[in-house]
Amino acid sequence: MQQATTTTGGPTLSTQSRLGRRLIQLYAGLALYGASSALLVEAGLGLEPWGVLHQGLAELTGLSIGVVSIVVGAAVLLLWIPLRQRPGLGTVSNVFVVGLAMDATLAAVPDVHGLAVRIPLLLAGIVFNGAATGLYIAASFGPGPRDGLMTGLHRRTGRSIRLMRTAVEVAVVVTGFVLGGTIGVGTVLYAVSIGPLAQVFLRVFAVRPASDGSTVVAGGQPRGAILRP
């Protein structure tokens, strides 16, 4: 039987293949996340919590929402330093790819009017966001800056991740709304559906390890992952 190893003693071909797949999943997931967030903006029926803040800051500063997402992601990443969180490739990539994909999608998608178009756009944005989350987390290259902030606060304070997530997201939603961000039925629908959707897509996009035929998330999933980049 032919061995899947290199003649120089380097990594196996199967290992290289899995790494390639994980990289594709990482960047496809981040790009799809940005695109799906842009669809929520276009639908105008309510954004995800951090999207409310990004839109509010965009209204305040005159910057595009994608650029604001990048700036906020970088600022949140700086907060990892006192929390002693270590970023991964996915963490740093998240800061830039999501924002760039958002602006590119918003530039490409025409303005929509009427609920007959906006409601399907909202639903598509939420489902694609769940798929993007599954792709990104299953790649296992590190949490996004915002989720890392919540898990870092959990470790430093001893409070539950659920409590930290709720506290942070309530704060960003309220701040974003005050600044002009959009809250609506889409915000509520996103909140109740993104967790189950992400769990489904995590199973769909899980990476098979080399050691056996079972399907698991490559490299292990962070304990208490919040299922959002």
Low-pLDDT runs of 5+ residues are 1-9, 212-227
The major pleated sheet works out as:
none
* Oligomeric assembly: single chain
Average residue-wise pLDDT: 86
Strand content: under 5%
Structural category is mainly alpha
Count the beta strands. 0
| Series of secondary-structure elements, N-terminal to C-terminal | HHHHHHHHH
The level of helicity is 55-70%
**Helical stretch count?**
9
Estimate the global geometry from the Cα principal axes.
Answer: globular
How many whole angstroms does the radius of gyration measure? Answer: 18 Å
Task: State the distance separating the first and last CA atoms.
Answer: 42 Å
What's a concise summary of this model?
The protein has 9 helices and no strands. The protein is 69% helix and 0% strand.
Structural features, described:
The chain is mostly helical. 69% of the residues lie in helices and 0% in strands. It has 9 helices and no strands. It has helices spanning 13-43, 49-61, 65-78, 80-83, 89-108, 115-139, 145-157, 161-179, 185-204. Helix 2 crosses helix 3. The longest helix is centred in the N-terminal third of the chain and has 31 residues, at 13-43. The protein is globular and about 55 Å long. The N and C termini lie far apart (42 Å).
What features would you highlight for this structure?
229 residues, 9 helices, globular, disordered C terminus, mainly alpha, 0% strand, disordered N terminus
Strand and helix layout:
Elements: H1 13-43, H2 49-61, H3 65-78, H4 80-83, H5 89-108, H6 115-139, H7 145-157, H8 161-179, H9 185-204
Helix pairs in contact: 1-5, 1-6, 2-3, 2-8, 3-5, 3-7, 6-9, 7-8
